Amino acid sequence: MNPVWIIEKKRDKGHLSQEEIAYFIAGFADETIPDYQMASLAMAIYLNGMTTEETANLTQEMLASGATFKWSGDAKQVDKHSSGGIGDKVSLPLAAMLACCDLQVPMISGRGLGSTGGTLDKLESIGGFRTNLSMDEMRQVVEKVGCVISGATPELVPADRKLYALRDVIGTVPSIPLITGSIMSKKLAEGLDALVLDVKYGSGAFMKSLSQARQLAQSLVDTGKRMGVATTALVTDMNQPLGRMVGNAVEVDESVAALEGEGPSDLMEVTLALGAELLVSTGTARDVTAARKQLQQTIDSGGAREKFAEMVTIQGGDLEAPRVVAPPNDLVGKTAGYVSQINSEQLGQAIISLGGGRKKQGEALDHSTGLEMLVRLGEQVKADQPLVRVFAKGSAVDDVRMAVLDAIEISEEPVKRNPLIVERFE
Ligand code: URA
């Protein structure tokens, strides 16, 4: 086979065979195919797309580039993946809640991407918490506690690590088949029985439009099912932060509150809906109503709070040690009316300016910074009402004051709210 023929075929809108995809991805992973040829194929895929079969083959070959978890025993392995949003902390309470339902959750998570926060960054605001466990350590934590949240190890899907870094610098990140291959190869390496995807759309999401989010949800579900994993997806609204808190330490605090039954209603709604998908997919609950009850019970009994603390302890952290949060500063609006739009991406950028997210790869974070949303979309506000509380050190609040206040639009007329959970894909 010749890499040039494969690039030309995709350039001319042809369908690549399983053998051609396998040859190309294996060659890219072992460096017999250079980055410039992979870059060219990625751009041809970006421009001309892939069929469901090609996307599944791409996912399969990326998965085959590295090690995968194999589990023994009766427990089912499940996970949730979110396409990323502002204030999205669902993974923290949900992993513990699922583990309390006798499911095992080998959750491999990532760091902040663009203006969206990362689960690993949030967890690292817990002093001592390790996110760099080896595959063996992850397996031990799952077998002992029922859930683990850690980063990808070097042996898991190396083709994705290389391809993602390349896509990032050649303008091919927003491609449905390439995103599908990237997300699904990493999730399927966990050796799952069931997976649920939270595909977010809106001002704080990767997918700004509902139609893009729908396409991605369908592609992820089709690929998961073709590869033998019970896969469903919910498309959810990300036109305002999920929950009230945005940042790192403040999001861990809000997650703990959620596990103690004090979570904000939108966070709980999304968490319960995603969890219920997994309980039903695995036959742990007979329907969504029973599943939600079972999940709620893990909170009411205190079991999920205890489970989360157990996971934190075994990963080297201390959940009970207070987390440092920078001093609060309330930002006050000028206009009376209704909150009509929240530019969540701009809020994510404010967190980056405050040091809670990265401007360049590998940068250390200030976990103590954050925002608290004091108003929600649709809410009526008075002039001079505090809209957002900024947790920032010294005078740093002045650097983000304008951007944060600008992110919140007030209209004279009442506004119609979008549903939080828009659509389900199976
Ligand atoms: N997240 C991923 O893991 N991969 C992508 O391509 C996009 C988002």
Q: Taking all residues together, what is the mean pLDDT?
A: 96
Number of helices: 16
So, CATH architecture of the largest domain?
Answer: 3-Layer(aba) Sandwich
- Work out the number of β strands: 13
Give the terminus-to-terminus CA distance. 37 Å
Secondary-structure map:
Elements: H1 3-11, H2 18-29, H3 35-48, H4 52-63, E1 78-82, H5 91-99, E2 105-109, H6 119-123, H7 135-145, E3 147-151, H8 158-170, H9 176-188, E4 194-201, H10 210-226, E5 230-237, E6 245-247, H11 249-259, H12 265-281, H13 288-300, H14 303-314, E7 328-332, E8 337-342, H15 344-353, E9 370-373, E10 380-381, E11 386-391, H16 397-406, E12 408-411, E13 421-425
Helix pairs in contact: 1-3, 2-4, 3-8, 4-9, 4-10, 5-12, 5-14, 9-10, 12-13, 15-16
The structure holds uracil.
Core attributes:
426 residues; alpha/beta; Pyrimidine Nucleoside Phosphorylase, Chain A, domain 2; four-stranded mixed beta sheet; four-stranded antiparallel beta sheet; globular; binds uracil
